[in-house]
Amino acid sequence: MSQTTKIPHGDEKVTVELTVKEAMALSGIRFHNNHHVEVSARKKLNEVLEGTYEIDKSSSPLDYSALR
Q: In the chain, N or C terminus with fewer CB closer than 10 Å?
């Protein structure tokens, strides 16, 4: 039995402006001498997601076992 998670507006598109190095870091390439590249890319992505997908903080915590 498969269980799906519904994400409101999950098929909408968002735009994130990344440098080529940041995009490469998000795809899994490691920059051993410059960890800041991956941190910067993740920060930009999270900022866009937080602005797009508002989480109701008054609701109960997520049941992570339901996400499997």
A: N
> What is the model's pTM?
0.63
What is d(CA 31, CA 33) in angstroms, rounded to the nearest whole number? 6
For the stretch 19-52, pLDDT in tens is 999 999 999 999 888 889 999 999 999 998 888 7
Instruction: Report the alpha-carbon distance of residue 68 to residue 46 in Å, rounded.
Output: 22
Centre a 10 Å sphere on the Cβ of residue 63 and count the other Cβ atoms it contains. Answer: 7
**Count of CB atoms situated within 10 Å of the CB of 64:** 7
Please answer whether residues 19 and 38 qualify as being in contact, where contact means their C-beta atoms are separated by less than 8 angstroms.
Answer: no
